[in-house]
Fold this protein.
Amino acid sequence: MNPETKKKKVHALVVSQSEISPGIFDLRLQCALAYDARPGTFVGVYIPGNDLLLPRPVSICDASGDMLRLVYRVAGDGTGRLSALSENDSVDLIGILGNGFPLDKAAGRDVVLLGGGIGIPPMVYLMRVLGRDLSGTPGAPRSVCAVLGYRNADAFLSAECAAYGKTLIATEDGSRGIRGTVLDALKKEKIAADMICSCGPKPMLSAVKKAAPAGEIYLSLEERMACGVGVCLGCVCETADTDPHSMVHNARVCTEGPVFEASRVIL
Ligand SMILES: Cc1cc2nc3c(=O)[nH]c(=O)nc-3n(C[C@H](O)[C@H](O)[C@H](O)COP(=O)(O)OP(=O)(O)OC[C@H]3O[C@@H](n4cnc5c(N)ncnc54)[C@H](O)[C@@H]3O)c2cc1C
Ligand code: FES
């Protein structure tokens, strides 16, 4: 970790932005924060203009050298304005935020990545890093498989994920891949898993926690955030353990998360 960039507010240069699917934008930025990114971490994006003060949390979809890639859905005013940025514009970021997925635990394991909807972007980064490690280096997982869940055949980012390893698609309407949820696909294809990493809407994460095969499960939670840096307590989730400082069953998703071992959190 570069101490100069840890949780710093920095300027990023927009290298490109494109709409890869209706309402889904792929933003490529040049920024020193990229050196400190890891799969499952995120940045806070300050919205251009002076009226929307809170940074919007967005997961890192990939990072290489000083290049950072964010893929986001236009959900409201902030992300709407973000989507208007184009090449050579600049945008302020705070980061790198959050803990990321525990890559060190993947060694020798059958790792399955379960991504749903706008929880899919961080899975691309994770898939690339774990897929690369399959080259037989120490710490490599035994196998990696991504199962990506979509509403319909518009399976954004699935081709990129497939370039890094085995990738299955599940669609709610059955128009592509396996009809049903990511868990239906996991069961139907009899995919071995002794470590699961998942990111997606809360009902999906809750189902993964209940129904996934035995093994370690890591969930990337999404809560509404304000400061993004652990100060406002706006993003707490309920936990099974008591926090030793506050003596309450809470953890801050922005700081202790967003990735939690499933048994630690109550969904
Ligand atoms: C850790 C984390 C990672 C995320 N990664 C992605 C991603 O990779 N791609 C993506 O499309 N979206 C992601 N989101 C959701 C994204 O932050 C929201 O869609 C975005 O903040 C909406 O901002 P807005 O101004 O467009 O919407 P508005 O609804 O106008 O936002 C109003 C306020 O609520 C907050 N807010 C609204 N929805 C959310 C939400 N779901 N989570 C947190 N705060 C919210 C905003 O930050 C803002 O302060 C992530 C959220 C979290 C917590
Ligand atoms: S968003 Fe402020 S503590 Fe997490």
Remarks:
- The mean pLDDT is 92.
- Residues 42, 54, 56-59, 72-73, 75-79, 118, 121, 222-225, 258 surround flavin-adenine dinucleotide (ligand 1) (CB under 6 Å).
- The first strand starts at residue 8 and ends at 21.
- The domain at 103-219 is CATH 3.40.50.80 (Rossmann fold).
